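Homework-ish question, so no full write-ups if that breaks the rules, but can someone show me the predicted structure for this set?
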Amino acid sequence: MYVKKSLVVLCTVLVFSSAAFVDNIPKCSIKDSDCQRQSLQYVIREASKTGIPEVQIAPFDPLELQQGIDIPIQDIVQLHFSDGVVKGLGKCLVNDFVTKIEQGLASLDITCNITVKGHYKANSSSPVIKSLLGGESVHGDGRAKVKIEKLNLKFDFNFYVEKRDGETYFKRKGEKVNYKYDVLGQVQFAADHLYLGERDASELLTNMLNQNWRLVMQSVGNNIMKGAMGTVEKFLRNFYDNIPTKFYITEDLSQYASN
Ligand SMILES: *[C@@H]1O[C@H](CO)[C@@H](O)[C@H](O)[C@H]1NC(C)=O
Ligand SMILES: *[C@@H]1O[C@H](CO)[C@@H](O)[C@H](O)[C@H]1NC(C)=O
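A: Not a homework solution, just the prediction itself:
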């Protein structure tokens, strides 16, 4: 255990001493929220292109989704989405980032334009669809694209300062991130090879989806966001658990350490 820990420290020192990314993060006073907002904006923009190899953060714009997802739309349509690629995360705009160190609270407000492309399979033999669409079932197998304009995300975190091997770190309390989301722009869908009975009805059906995007998002949005939060949590864990605060906060935060 001890040997393992020393090794980790040694590696951290070695990697960080030759690293460029962490050295270039703009440093801010713990009291200066606007500076921290700009610093986070820098981290998102630059890390999206190069990743932060020293803390196992891979580039994330574009982001290839490793796993397919099943997206049931009520009990009506079975949708499976795979080989997804997400674009736009590096251009997210940080509107607000406030850290209250005494209370151990941080909140983040961010807006993104996002495009997701991939392969989909869909089918429905539900009576609801049949009665809506004149007795026919829907099935499809092809390319799909979803464009979300102005996806606004608000996060709240509880954290504390941990002192470890002479360095201070922000540690999140609990694994889960509290979040809320809203689409301030609109959502556009596109898909090919989508059939109504035997007839290609891609245009007809995607038009229907587009006209009812709010309803569609109400039924599938939560499911998709839950998946997306896994990525956000992993990023936060890798970043804050491994990068000492001295790389982005000017003050010595030892006095706040709770251990
Ligand atoms: C998103 O796109 C809209 C117009 O399509 C643009 O006005 C806005 O600035 C963009 N926002 C971000 C965060 O890129
Ligand atoms: C619809 O798709 C699901 C999941 O891909 C599959 O299990 C089911 O058999 C399909 N149903 C029809 C009627 O094709």
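Now go work out the reasoning yourself. Hint: Residues 91, 93, 111-113, 149-150 surround 2-acetamido-2-deoxy-beta-D-glucopyranose (ligand 1) (CB under 6 Å).
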